[in-house]
Amino acid sequence: MTKAGPILTVVLAIMALWYVACIPMNVQETLTAAERAGAVVTPDNARARAEVGRFSLMLQNTDTLAGSWSVERARLPAPHQIVAELWDSTWTEEVYGRRGIVNSGSLSNKSLIYHGWVTLSATVVGFAIGAGLGVLLAVGIVHSKTMDMSVMPWAIVSQTIPIVALAPMIIVVLYSFGIQGLIPKAVISAYLSFFPVVVGMVKGLRSPDAMQLDLLHTYNAGQGATFWKLRLPSSVPYLFTSLKVGIAASLVGAIVGELPVQRGGLGARMLGGSYYGQTEQIWAALFFAAGMAALLVALIGWIEARTLKRMGVQA
Amino acid sequence: MIYVLFAALIWAMGWGLNTVIANGRAAKTSAAQIGVPLIFGATVLIIWELLVTGLNISAVILPAPTAIATAFGANLTILWADFFQTFVKGAFSGYVIGCGAAFLVAIVVDRYDFLRRGLLPVGNFVAALPIVGTAPILVMWFGFDWQSKAAVVVVMVFFPMLVNTVAGLRDTSTMQRDLMRTYGASYTQTLLKLRIPAAMPFVFNGLKIATSLALIGAIVAEFFGSPVLGMGFRISTSVGQLALDMVWAEIVVAAIAGSLFYGLVAKIEQWVTFWHPSQRKH
């Protein structure tokens, strides 16, 4: 409880700030909506209001500001509007929507759960490919001096390069081969999670010190035995740290990969929302993505804790 | 077919040369440390060129390195304008604002234990989220020009920087803090003379992480709307026109800008934290 107290306070403070910020952010839209509803607003037309600053508008129209938290297509939707949108686009859409279970007998393909699944499947496939190849390359780098000296500097340099910039090109090029759907996004995800895993894993496989390596040498252990019995077990903590970085990067890759081709997914949902001014839709997709990222990282953290416990590492 | 065979030959030669150098007596010299990756990079480029020519790969799928270099040379003014718009105006101003703000907030957070226990878990949580997703919202708020890109960069770099700086400010031992107390040092004096210098390795770690985040943020934000220049804009429109040589030229610019930016921060780090064990020359 002593740990939750401060966190809760900070979260509540952020919420309060958010609600306050809604008033100046949405003042134009609020006043327009109030005017349409028949309230008296000063100045009395939208063009004149556009000339006046936000804060003087607020002072002149104090009695209509309560609408700030219920405007549609607000510049900054209030938290409860986002929660309502999340609920509408998940539970309500799946169950009662036009394509929901009640009306069509199957799950809706317009809900956030569907879009989230599209993104999640690309993320997981890409992450599995990227992390797998990353581990393999790391093993190669540790065992071959040539590979270490030629590839490793490039792996490190590539971390400073905004690889995401490649995303639209990868999508289009793969599309011209007739490959579309999950694979192009997974390729981007794989690419983004690849290098963090390589760098972390190389560090991990090199973490046994000279004393331990010498001990295995006195046991007359070969390279294979040294790898399985010493290097691999001691690389596990490093591996999981970089896997957490990698899966977050994979999710970003999948979302960015959905921008050029509008075929479902959270990225498509965000871009669609920004085209049509559906701010609640963007925020809901953003929160959904955030929840997914947190869950994925937590899942890897959980596996890490289990694995380390089974290996007998003191946490 | 002859090109493909030639490519295989070049690969064998490059790899063989590197194997000889890496396992030879000169492997520890700095010339070998730089030369081997360069030979590897050059081999990859030559093979790329040979395979594209030899297998008749269309330029709308994978342009040859020479075609990319030609596009790079022919469009220097456009590339420079894009670089200036995205990197200098968007990424760099956002980087400075975001990192500066995070540093100041970190000092406040560190001062009040309650804030530290409350804000740090939240910061850690946010640092792992796909923050690029805020790009459409911020583009809507701040318009299409560089301000919205800078805003995305600020949001992206803020939390990693905050978490690192707070961790750094706590990285002094009880002994060191007690020594400051016996000197009768005030909070400000302890902060300026002991804790901020001690935090510098962590601060620079945050700054280095933020360099690549800044470029990513600025480029991705341009996918959501931008004026008719900028690296992200050029990439997405050139992809639409299937002018892939231009896309690659833009990626080369991004790569050079990203690694130079990182290198610059790393150089400043060496200069500021010369006392730290990781910077000592052996």
Write the layout of secondary structure elements.
The complex is a heterodimer of chains A (315) and B (282).
Chain A (H helix, E strand, L loop, with lengths): L3 H22 L1 H10 L9 H6 L2 H7 L18 H18 L4 H4 L7 H32 L1 H14 L8 H10 L5 H24 L4 H9 L4 H35 L8 H10 L3 H32 L5
Chain B lengths: L1 H22 L6 H25 L10 H10 L1 H36 L1 H15 L7 H8 L3 H24 L4 H9 L4 H37 L7 H10 L3 H29 L10
Helix pairs in contact in B: 1-2, 3-11, 4-5, 4-7, 4-9, 5-7, 6-7, 7-9, 9-10, 9-11, 10-11
Annotation keywords:
heterodimer, A: 315 residues, mainly alpha, MetI-like fold, 2 domains, 14 helices, 74% helix, 0% strand, elongated, B: 282 residues, 11 helices, flat
Number of spatially distinct domains of chain A: 2
Helix fraction of chain A, binned, reads: over 70%
* Overall 3D shape of chain A: elongated
Name the CATH superfamily classification of the largest domain in chain A: MetI-like
In percent, how helical is the residue content of chain B?
over 70%
How would you sum up the global shape of chain B? Answer: flat
How many helices of chain A? The count is 14
Taking all residues together, what is the mean pLDDT of chain B?
85
* CATH topology label of the largest domain in chain A: MetI-like fold
Largest sheet of chain B: none
Could you give the distance between the termini of chain B? 51 Å
Q: Which class of the largest domain in chain B in CATH terms?
A: Mainly Alpha
**Assembly context of the chains:** heterodimer
Secondary structure tally, helices of chain B = 11
Low-confidence stretches of chain B: none
